[in-house]
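Milestone M4 deliverable, item 7.
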Amino acid sequence: MAALRCAETALEAVGLVKNYSAGRNKPPVTALRGLSFSAAPGTVFGLLGPNGAGKSTTVKILSTLSSPDAGTARVAGFDVATEPDRVRRALGYVAQKPGTDPTATARENLLLAGRLHGMPRREAAARARELVDRFGLADAADRPVRTYSGGMARKLDVALGLTHRPPVLFLDEPTTGLDPQARSEMRREISGLAADERMTVLLTTHYLDEADRLADRLAIVDHGTVVAEGTPDELKSALRGDAVHVEIAAGARAADARAVLERVPGLREITVDGTAVRGRTDDGARALPPVLAALDAAGVPVASATLARPSLDDVYLRHTGHTMEAAK
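Output delivered:
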């Protein structure tokens, strides 16, 4: 396993700023706006946000593939700017796009990765056998990767990131594009990495349920900055009461529904997202009948109305002003 400098945090980003050129005579595009977070050793830390929030830019900086315009970052105790070689040896990086040679077999890909990391051939071959067994690829280990299903190919991508037993692993949107069964299998693999491999996992995702299930701690990223950080339970518990979700029928105006609900006693934090109107209340069971009665009296037709305990979608809405779906 690569060396791990003794540190209280396995990952640390402080005030990261990153701008990209938008072309001639155009203002630069700001991807990161003072982003900061830290992750403890041996945990799964999630960066949750829609595409374009700044998650992949953060991962590129932490993996030394890009340099920040301002701010500092450390991986496994090593500074990404002054100790890039040590950072690279201490981490495994699984990017969004496949990193395998599709014409080679899984075993050949893993053997090559081991050799590139400086392993003797015998050690690299042993590690390849260990990983194909670990990810259930033994029966297909000697087939070209181009014949693999999406889920199998993604498992191999993760296996490649583990070849040199890094103390830190970056998983950038690891389940995007997978079918539900393959996504479920990949999530099971990820959940065991911190415990089985004793490593710190940085998981970037735009799937709310994925972050809720897998992350020991997470940061919600919006427009290049962290707007909330904590365990999933801490973030949800900070929202008191129940969520009231009313879907307005076709042809009705959500703005009219909002005006009505703002006058319902005990209902607060009213927001509109398309045809959906949401609010919070301390007692959802008692609040729902007055909500429906007020809308009916105002002539606003309702397609559906539901109550729910706080979710990460509610947390995201509270801190960003919009839902994850609306931001995609």
